[in-house]
Specification:
alpha/beta; Oxidized Rhodanese, domain 1; 2 domains; two-stranded antiparallel sheet; 10 strands
């Protein structure tokens, strides 16, 4: 994707993944006995659940059985197109391209439409995508097989499933899944469980790393993501709660004494 997408056959429906309605997607996930088998190292696995988002999006919410994508930008996605020797994070490495179902999902479906054309060109035959993405799934099916929140690319940063469908959330709240839905999220600094599924930006203006952080580490590191950033010359003030920083130019010429 580093070279852009203008060369991809995006307008050819036969080159894109087959869209699966949320209800059918739910049935497929529920039919899987072991939701942790999304690995091509298991010879009995005939499907791969592929999260075509960024790693930080996965960190606050994902479908059961989906591995964390090791990218922080969609342009860096390389599932199925890694070098011959491959990388450990490539779930499609050495997968049978004709017999394995690739179940792809993203927030709204656009990234899957784009990336499925790349996989089709690589010879993958059975490509499926969640129609309308996770946001549409949460509206119609609720948080079944989904844990955590959904990352949003706006000032909210994160929305719980109840924001999409309150009625289905009431039903889901009676299941064990509701109690375990946020236990996977860890602080980037100390690896403890976080109380809020919402990212914050590093206070170091020249870092600006997006990360999850517990309340203790926010205070101990002054809103920074590491001890190195604590000594940076252009550090922004620690914001209370999960407020967003203003535009970078507001702090551009600001210096904070270590």
């Amino acid at each position: 994707l580093e070279g852009g997408i203008s060369h991809l056959p995006l307008l050819d429906p036969s080159m894109r993944a087959t869209a699966i309605a949320p209800s059918e997607w739910r049935k497929r996930l529920e039919a899987v006995k072991n939701n942790d088998t999304a690995s091509n190292t298991n010879p009995r696995t005939n499907y791969i659940l592929l999260d075509v988002r960024n790693g930080y999006e996965w960190d606050i919410g994902h479908f059961h059985g989906a591995q964390r994508p090791d990218v922080d930008c969609f342009r860096s996605t390389s599932f199925g197109i890694s070098p011959t020797e491959g990388v450990a994070s490539d779930q499609l490495l050495q997968v049978d391209k004709e017999k394995t179902d690739i179940l792809m999902y993203c927030t709204g479906g656009i990234r899957c439409d784009v990336y499925s054309t790349i996989l089709r060109q690589q010879g993958f035959q059975n490509l499926y995508t969640l129609e309308g993405g996770v946001s549409h799934y949460l509206k119609t099916e609720g948080p079944v097989k989904w844990i955590g929140n959904l990352f949003t690319f706006d000032s909210r940063l994160s929305l719980p499933p109840s924001a999409y469908n309150h009625e289905t959330m009431i039903e889901a709240s009676m299941t064990q899944q509701a109690f375990d839905s946020d236990k996977f999220a860890k602080c980037y600094v100390c690896n403890s469980q976080v109380s809020e599924l919402r990212h914050r930006n590093c206070a170091n203006l020249d870092c600006n790393f997006l990360f999850l952080c517990c309340e203790n580490c926010v205070m101990d590191l002054g809103g920074c993501c590491s001890y190195n950033c604590m000594t940076a010359p252009r550090r922004r003030p620690v914001l209370p709660g999960f407020q967003r920083y203003k535009k970078w130019h507001v702090y551009r010429d600001q210096k904070v004494e270590a």
